[in-house]
Amino acid sequence: MKKLLLSLVFIGIVAAQAFSQEEINTNQDTKDSPEIYFENTTHDYGKIKYSGNGLCEFTFKNTGKEPLLLTNVKASCGCTTPTWPKEPIKKGKTGTIVVKYNTKITGAFTKSIRVYSNAKTSPVTLKITGTVSKVVVENQTNK
């Protein structure tokens, strides 16, 4: 009886995970669909000072025939905050995704940002990398 119950629980967990998988393609592949084009999908900050400017921008263009709508932009962790245009981007027009990295976390980092839209290729993955330098505390002597 215990084995049967355990087997049913296991089957239920497997079935729940199978049905909860995230859908990758959000649009049917038609010739009139919007298309999102990024000139650059990576940004290397290089070396950044602790508490320095952690902003970067990714510019994209709608190269399709229909308006492009960004439905969600998700960072791989809470230390990276993206903002994006909520209004549709018309055919031939550009938009900008602004990404802010928390530069109060020292060390090397590589983070990804996934851009979900109604474009033929969705999601698109953007990547940021860099190194935040350690805080240097100088010794001060009293004179």
Topology of this protein?
Layout: H1 2-19, E1 36-38, E2 42-48, E3 55-62, E4 70-75, E5 80-83, E6 94-101, E7 107-117, E8 124-132
Parallel strand pairs: 2-8
Antiparallel strand pairs: 1-3, 3-6, 4-7, 5-6, 7-8
Written overview of the protein:
With 143 residues, the chain is mainly beta. It has a single domain (29-132), classed as Immunoglobulin-like (Sandwich). Helix content is 13%, strand content 39%. The termini are far apart.
Low-confidence stretches: 19-27
Could you give the order of the helices and strands?
HEEEEEEEE
CATH superfamily: Immunoglobulins
Structural class: mainly beta
Cα(first) to Cα(last) distance is: 82 Å
Rg estimate, integer Å = 22 Å
Number of domains: 1
Which percent range fits the helix content?
A: 10-25%
CATH uppermost class: Mainly Beta
* Mean pLDDT score: 84
Q: Please work out how many helical segments DSSP would assign.
A: 1
CATH topology: Immunoglobulin-like
Strand content: 35-45%
* Total beta strand runs: 8
Strand order of the largest sheet: 1-3-6-5
The CATH architecture assignment turns out to be Sandwich
Largest sheet: 4 strands, antiparallel
